Amino acid sequence: MKVMNVAVVGAGIYGINHINAYTWNPNTNLAAVCDLNKEITDRIAKEYQVKTYNDVNEMLDHEEIDAVSIATPDAFHMDPAIAAIRHGKPVLVEKPLATTSEDAKKILDEAKKYHVRVAVDYHKRWDPAAINLKNQLEAPGTGKPIRGYMSMEDIIDVPTEWFNWADKSSPVHFLGTHCYDQIRWYMGCEVEEVYAVGTKELLKSKGVDTYDTIQAFLKFENGCYWTVENSWILPKGFAKNNDGRTQILCENTLLRADSQNRGVEIYDNQKCHTPNSYFILDNCGRPRGFGIEPMNDFIYCLMNDEPFIADGNDGLQAELIAEAVHKSLETKQAVKVERA
Length: 340
What we know:
With about 350 residues, this protein is α/β, with parallel strands linked by helices.
């Protein structure tokens, strides 16, 4: 079986997970890593013994690459994705596909022009709890979904300490699009209309000009209504870096999932910690979990000519919802989602 040469663009907090995935996948060779920060690429070159670059086009021009993972910050996915596509390389783009539908459409238009496939890492589709709910929603007897609720929130460290680009994104782009994609997947149809409210105070007072929290109300084509809550201001003392909960009321069934406490509790002298044992876990040096599976699935689908679990269109549709949510925040009115 042919081993695929894969390059990773963006080697920051999440890009390192792509690097680890391709390092351990028996069907891939980590051929190159690109990041604008030379300090980062010097460290990656030493630690992983891999060729590194600080310019994506230079990397694509000089290396034999079969596929590319894009893990740059939210607002900077388009340029490296299009560069890879114009070199004829299929791409896996971290969520969101882009932070504007215009950029998302440019990526997909180029992919169509160059006959290149695009996948998006909406890794919640690989979460065992989410898969369980998806299967139950499709099971005979569950009944039509009537009402849904989903929250996904981060501690305040994420926008204030983890990233220096949080003002170029928002809880909607960073977290909300996860929710929108997951709910579209659950419902099997599209959002027709949204209404949203939000606050922009705490983070702005700390020099980060973006929303603290956003509540969006989504009407789906099947008549189901969803409330989606996203925030970036959970207190530092929260037991986990993030919180997430889902509840779906159907005609005959009530479904619930708690993504915050996955059953493991660790107590120290400061607080209780509730690590997610299913997301990304170091197992004897090898990465495991649903945060790694999208990278491995990307390679599997390319090698076997299978459809992606989350593709470029899924990325675009989630962004269209995100844009409608932001428009509703600005206009304080309900907004129709304009389908592409």
